[in-house]
């Protein structure tokens, strides 16, 4: 006689029990899929449990800190201009692009793209509601964007005064980010969100600070070298262009940031959180 299908409550209980019992491989000392997933859900839950002001301030800090990537991008672009072909300079920017991400992730500030899949997992695991996810995303995005605005104003002023870059450099970088069709920016942002969600997963799997730095550098350098659109770095790049050049309009900025945020969210939530979680669930069911 065939066994009756378990109820949804029983299925969820089985998933939670399997997560609780997940352990590292005794042979390789590497974390199992279940252990990484459990750690991600716990980390995500910790963020949900934080005070709203704390989340906003941590997100604001991340928005400010990502400005150090932009500072180095502009400085290197300006330094190499006239010495190296411009398309080569764009590729070389990937060497300095990861700096802000390393500061943010190791310093545990809250960056939207790095937290997207992390915050989605407790919802998939039925520990949090979809409404609470949207509310938390709203806080994180607000903090990241405001921090980006503040650092953009500061860098657009200080760069020319220090002589490390000029406003033409700011304009060229902003135009380079936005000159694509909307569909290209959207799909590019999905891929960027996918990579950033994967980065969050890989960091949870790593056990040393050095390996985490290597992973952050590797993933974010890929983003820069291939020109994939990251909403929070791009926010600083395009906003700085808008406030300092007529080549970037408010419509250009608004269109870019909406497409980049949506694409990054979909990439992290669907291609990392959902697929990683469902792979574990089907393994439990099997």
Automatic annotation (TrEMBL):
It comes from Aequorivita flava. Pfam families: Form_Nir_trans (PF01226). Signal peptide: none annotated. This is Formate/nitrite transporter family protein. One of its GO terms (molecular function) is formate transmembrane transporter activity. It comes from the Bacteria. It is found in: Membrane. Keywords: Membrane, Transmembrane, Transmembrane helix. Gene3D superfamilies: Glycerol uptake facilitator protein (1.20.1080.10). It is a multi-pass membrane protein. Its main location: membrane. One of its GO terms (cellular component) is plasma membrane. PANTHER family: FORMATE TRANSPORTER-RELATED, INNER MEMBRANE PROTEIN YFDC. Residues 22-31 have a biased composition (Polar residues). The chain crosses the membrane at residues 55-80, 92-112, 133-158, 184-204, 213-233, 253-275.
